[in-house]
Amino acid sequence: MAVQQFSASAHLQDGVQVKVQARNFTLTIDEPKELGGTDLGMNPVEALLGSLGACQAIVARVYAQKFNVELNDFRVEVEGDIDLDGFFGLSDVRPGYSEIRYRFVIDSPSSREDIDGLIAHLQAHCPVGDSLAAPVKLVLSDVVVNSQAA
User: Fold this and answer.
1) Which pLDDT band, with edges at 50, 70 and 90, does 36 fall under?
2) Residue 102 in 3-state DSSP?
3) Is residue 73 located within the same domain as residue 110?
């Protein structure tokens, strides 16, 4: 199968609120009030955790039948640790997550062996998990500056 390209745009609004557009969907990203936002949406690092959990849940649904697993319910609980001193430039710690942990809560009559096979496949084939676990090349392709200066 050919490489599929996805895209999104993030447009800064008032304060630190950002409208993210992908296809015909819009998501509001913001910060909690204690981090300077208006708390109108999850913040970017929460959205990242949610994206990981959502991707894992989708992979579970797509491949469950292949592994003879019946899913009555599937939930992913995700949490991560960030030292905000890195973001604020107060120390040399990295600004991103140092660790992300997740837990699967599964309601299924299927055998534990079949469920374990599905989980192993899920962990090996979740695109968001793979993108977080392995270095991804980030490329700034352009900077466009519009100026009204005379």
Assistant:
1) very high
2) strand
3) yes
